[in-house]
Design goal:
The complex is a heterodimer of chains A (389) and B (379). The radius of gyration of chain A is 25 Å and the shape is globular. Chain A has a single domain, classed as Methylamine Dehydrogenase, Chain H (7 Propeller), CATH 2.130.10.10. The longest helix of chain A has 19 residues. Chain A starts with 9 loop residues before the first helix and ends with a strand. Helix content of chain A is 10%, strand content 35%. In chain A, the strands form seven sheets. In chain A, strands 1-28-27-26 form a four-stranded antiparallel β-sheet, with no helix packed on it. Chain A has 389 residues and is mainly beta. Chain B has 379 residues and is mainly beta. Chain B has two domains: 64 residues, no CATH class; 280 residues, YVTN repeat-like/Quinoprotein amine dehydrogenase (Methylamine Dehydrogenase, Chain H, 7 Propeller). Chain B is 8% helix and 39% strand. Chain B has three helices and 29 strands. In chain B, the strands form seven sheets. A four-stranded antiparallel β-sheet of chain B has the order 2-29-28-27, with no helix packed on it. In chain B, strand 5 and strand 6 form a beta hairpin. The longest helix of chain B has 19 residues. The chains are: A mainly beta (389), B mainly beta (379). At the A-B interface, helix 3, strand 2, strand 18, strand 20 and strand 21 of A face strand 1, helix 1, helix 2 and helix 3 of B. Strand 21 of chain A pairs antiparallel with strand 1 of chain B.
Chain lengths: 389, 379
């Protein structure tokens, strides 16, 4: 027996190639009852941890499968596929930070009173409400790259079409745009008539592939008549035409796109998640708990829409295809914003597995987004901070 | 600052550990599922794979038919793929319909595009340049000059290889170096090079009448072995993880062994051109038949011939991990879902794009070269 050979000469490796064998392949791993034709697939199930077989030495390939067993096979298989496809897997980042306190290592100082951030795939964009700035932070190392100015009451960010769009919660309702390929400077105002009124301006936006939708809540919780205007606005990029819709809405606070339809969180009362058609008409309304969080951001996970409520500390998980409520999750740290990273959902300070809806942990957090590796959340303070989770 | 409910960061940790899923004690909507199976059955339900056998039953002891098994597996795979896309983590669930609305990324006369994962590299046959565009924000970073004939691009081994087209050369760019002139990998190819592939060991070039194998070495030029037998007019070449495949306008889709000998010829139809691999199947376009042919990489069998969905002189083809995009000369882009070959629609680029040509994906967006509009469209 040779000692461990850490750096084998190339010629030696080549000589050994082709002689490599799975020591037990002729008997299909631990299983003695699997034919060669089925063996690779059975072994994959075994190696992936999807099944241990029917006994230590049998898989019983000719037995029929019950629906219960099929559920185990499929869900465990899906979980492995999702876990291995994540960029976190390739980077060896298998941890989940669920400390009581996030260490101040890695906090990035950003614009004051940050709102809802967004990732463009490389950088995180953070709107700062006062005095109205947008910070650009590099996701790989957390370095503050740029600070864009002139974004009054900047509240929420969207990355689409190679541009960054920012809502401004001004009395008239503003949409700002940044061309990130240009040198840093002032944001461009592309619309200034979305509606919203004093204290009720726009704080949420979504893109459907051709148009940008914004929600102007009005002032549901400061009922001093006359109510400020509320609306859903549809902005057409290029012409920047604004179409404002009030029919069917009471206090719409947030919009989210599921790949097919736009959905609106309308806090009413009553509180409803409303599905819209392409013209902005309400085609379905799903009851949800009351929501009075200032920042509301539902998230879509590929199958379901997660609507968090800081009032009731619950997340309503709604099947996008049908509008059916598939689960209501409860945890004390749930606040009004949610973010999905491909396998997990962060709602306020509560982290959930998006496949099983299992609770993964609690950690101080806030309005967040994901770049596919980390969640990033904003600390609403002056100075503001962006924190990597 | 206008927050109505401003939770302090420190305060939200209170009460940790009392999170509950309200419905767990009865296994979601199902009353007939034992605790041992419940987590798995619930996942099937949450993922939208099954709604149960009735609103309150899942029937865990019932047998699964092959048909039901097909539904379970394919819906499960679809969810796994959708959630694994980088677009999911970035909440980009849309399909861009009007990339021209706020302008194309300006690049003069783009011929071919390819992504290294962070940047998009764009060749321009005339005047012979390669431009580096940052995918995240579309900023034009660098331009290399002195690549006459620059055609298709292959990022590999940390270098950007460029087929030299009619120059008979292959160029290499070291992206870590300041922009300038490229290195010349070889300058004596037997004929024009239009497409490159890498098999992990050697660089392959599809030439006008042959296929060349180049062996990497510390210094240029690299040694060349050229194979001509079996080839008439090679088009695009790629590596599927096991084999090299090349389209040939006369001979169809050809599978090559490690030395470049043709070991299988798939009669896909007339004039196959661009080629892409989706992890299971090869997709090639038939320019004058307005069709896309999908071929199994396992045995070379034709899985499907796709028509319609806007195909009109199909030009190029790309895969983003979930969807396949085909550009059509007249005038737009077509999408299919790679998992089930379902058409996902057509986006017209008439009126702004003027003939979309080459397309690539960076894993988030498709990037389309519009030569006559001197720009790239992000889809």
């Amino acid at each position: 027996m040779k000692p461990k050979l850490w750096f084998a000469p190339i010629g030696l490796v080549a000589a050994l190639a082709g002689a490599a064998t799975g020591a037990m392949q002729d008997v299909c791993g631990p299983f003695t009852d699997v034919s060669p034709a089925l063996c690779p697939y059975v072994l994959e199930m075994y190696y992936l941890g999807v099944t241990a077989g029917t006994s230590p030495t049998t898989f019983s390939p000719d037995s029929v499968v019950t629906r219960g067993q099929a559920a185990v096979f499929v869900s465990k298989g899906v979980n492995q596929a999702i876990a291995r496809s994540s960029r976190r897997a390739a980077l060896g980042q298998w941890w989940t930070r669920v400390d009581d306190q996030i260490s101040q290592i890695g906090w990035t100082q950003v614009a004051d009173y940050p709102g809802l951030p967004i990732a463009d795939g490389a950088d995180i964009w953070v709107p700062g409400q006062v005095p109205g700035e947008v910070s650009r932070v590099r996701a790989s190392d957390g370095k503050l790259l740029e600070t864009w100015t002139g974004a009054e009451e900047a509240t929420s960010a969207l990355a689409a079409m190679g541009r960054i769009f920012i809502t401004g919660a001004t009395a008239q309702g503003t949409l700002f745009m940044i061309d990130p390929a240009q040198p840093v400077g002032e944001v461009v105002t592309v619309a200034d008539n979305l509606g919203g009124g004093e204290f009720g301006g726009t704080r949420s936006l979504a893109f459907d592939g051709s148009r940008i939708w914004t929600a102007q809540a009005g002032t549901p919780f400061i009922p001093i008549p006359p109510y400020p205007l509320y609306s859903i606005a549809i902005v057409t990029p290029g012409s920047w035409d604004v179409q404002t819709i009030t029919d069917g809405f009471t206090h719409p606070v947030a919009v989210v796109f599921d790949g097919t339809s736009i959905w609106v969180v309308d806090v009413g009362p009553p509180s409803l998640l409303k599905k819209l058609d392409a013209a902005g008409a309400v085609v379905q309304a799903v009851p949800i708990p009351s929501v009075s969080d200032y920042f509301v951001r539902p998230t879509f996970d590929g199958a379901n829409i997660w609507v968090p409520s800081g009032d009731t500390h619950t997340v309503t998980v709604i099947r996008a295809a049908t509008g059916e409520v598939v689960a209501t999750l409860s945890a004390p740290g749930v606040a009004g914003t949610a973010a999905f990273d491909g396998s997990r959902v962060l709602t306020g300070s509560e982290l959930w597995d998006a496949q099983t809806l299992q609770h993964l942990g609690t950690t101080p957090a806030g309005p967040a987004c994901s770049d596919g590796v980390n969640f990033w959340f904003a600390v609403e303070s002056a100075p503001g901070y962006l924190v990597r989770m | 600052m206008r927050g109505w409910t401003l939770a302090l960061v420190a305060s939200v940790a209170m009460g940790a550990g009392v999170a509950t899923a309200v419905v767990q004690d009865v296994c979601g909507p199902f009353t007939d599922v034992s605790p041992a199976f419940c987590p798995y059955v619930l996942e099937m339900y949450y993922l939208g794979i099954t709604a149960g056998t009735s609103p309150t039953t899942y029937s865990p002891e019932a047998m699964v038919t092959r048909g039901q098994a097909a539904v379970f597996v394919s819906k499960g795979v679809n969810q796994a793929i959708a959630r694994s896309s980088r677009r999911a983590a970035l909440a980009q669930w849309w399909t861009t319909k009007r990339p021209e609305a706020i302008g194309l990324t300006p690049v003069t006369g783009p011929t071919s595009v390819a992504s290294d994962g962070v940047d998009v590299w764009v060749s321009a046959q005339v005047p012979g340049t390669v431009t580096r565009v940052r995918a995240s924000d579309g900023r034009v970073l660098d331009t290399w000059t002195g690549l006459p004939g620059a055609n298709s691009i292959l990022p590999a081994m940390g270098r950007i290889f460029v087929a030299g087209g009619d120059s008979g050369k292959i160029y290499a760019i070291d992206p870590a170096q300041p922009p300038g002139l490229p290195s010349i990998v070889v300058s004596d190819l037997p004929s024009s090079s239009y497409s490159l592939a890498f098999d992990g060991v050697r660089l392959w070039s599809a030439n006008a009448d042959s296929v060349s194998l180049l062996t990497p070495a510390p210094t240029y030029p690299w040694s060349i072995v050229t194979r001509t037998e079996g080839f008439t007019i090679p088009g695009e070449i790629l590596y599927d993880g096991r084999y090299i495949w090349v389209t040939d306008q006369d001979a169809g889709l050809l599978k090559l062994d490690a030395e470049g000998a043709v070991i299988q010829s798939v009669p896909v139809g007339p004039e196959p051109g661009p080629l892409v691999f989706d992890g299971a199947n090869l997709w090639t376009t038939l320019l004058h038949t307005d069709a896309v042919v999908v071929v199994s990489s396992v045995d070379g069998s034709i899985r499907a011939t796709l028509t319609g969905n806007g195909l009109n002189l199909p030009n190029d083809i790309a895969f983003d991990g979930e969807r396949v995009m085909v550009t059509s000369f007249f005038e737009g882009v077509s999408y299919w879902r790679a998992a089930d070959l379902a058409p996902l629609g057509f986006v017209s680029t008439g009126g702004f794009g003027v003939s979309p040509l080459s397309v690539c994906s960076d894993g988030i967006n498709f990037w389309v070269a519009f030569s006559q509009s001197n720009g790239l469209g992000r889809f």
